[in-house]
Amino acid sequence: MxxxxxxxxxxxxAATRFYxxxxxxxxxxxxxxRAATVGYGKKYSEFWINLRxxxxxxxxxxxxHVCFRARSTDMVDAFxxxxxxxxxxxxxxxGLREHDGEGGYYAAFIxxxxxxxxxxxxxxx
Length: 125
Description:
The chain is of the alpha/beta class. It has 2 helices and 8 strands; from the N terminus they run βαββββαβββ.
């Protein structure tokens, strides 16, 4: 149903370095690189970062929440580690989430350089 998602960033160069590492851990690469936007995906651009120099800084509880599906728990772990290495903040270490009951919802949450909440998830059952 959804073709693509985009988020705003204050510093496109810094965000590109961050997302190259973080999304690379999930098998995605920068497919479309333009002056004020970069699109990431596996076959086509599904996730875009867009330069918005005039946006207000994200505060706690605001910003976008985007979740990416990972193929394994190892990929979720790698996503989280790559985000921390690239300057992001942990917003929930990798692990099973009890809110999902018996579904095996294994996820990690990070905050990107602009405060957006980015998640990677896989299902173990």
